[in-house]
Specification:
This protein is an alpha+beta fold and about 130 residues long. The protein has one helix and six strands.
């Protein structure tokens, strides 16, 4: 895929693929590094293999970088390697490439809780709709 003439090369999209995992809306602090510089931002949605984040340090499509996401439980999830799949301004679609198995397990447990909370909320919503 070649960038259009209206899109800066750094904002060109990576080849399109279907996401293998569902993303959940969240709002978690994130820190990340690009070279020697440190950026801070917010993760806006999360899945088992990626997220959407916005931050104060510019990244390029195709750029790999490490990041640390802080969950509401104050647990830190360190991602040793992530790659920018798309960019719009300072918003980024990020795929997780390298994460320790223990960290991946903690992320899977957290996502499982998100699914359970969503299922519970939907059950309650259905109950109130039938009343």
């Amino acid at each position: 895929m070649t960038p259009s003439k209206n899109t800066a090369p750094c904002e060109a999209l990576m080849p399109f693929t279907i996401r293998p995992h569902r993303r959940f809306p969240v709002q978690f602090p994130v820190t990340y590094h690009a070279g020697l510089d440190k950026g801070q931002g917010v993760v806006w949605n999360l899945s088992l293999n990626g997220c959407r984040l916005s931050g104060n340090l510019p990244l390029r499509v195709g750029q790999s970088f490490p990041m640390t996401v802080t969950l509401p439980t104050k647990e830190n999830l360190f991602v040793a390697g992530a790659i920018v799949r798309w960019r719009h301004g300072l918003d980024y679609g990020v795929e997780t490439l390298v994460m320790e198995k223990q960290t991946q397990s903690r992320l899977a447990q957290y996502v499982k809780r998100l699914v359970q909370m969503e299922t519970h909320a939907e059950t309650l919503r259905q109950m109130f709709l039938t009343v």
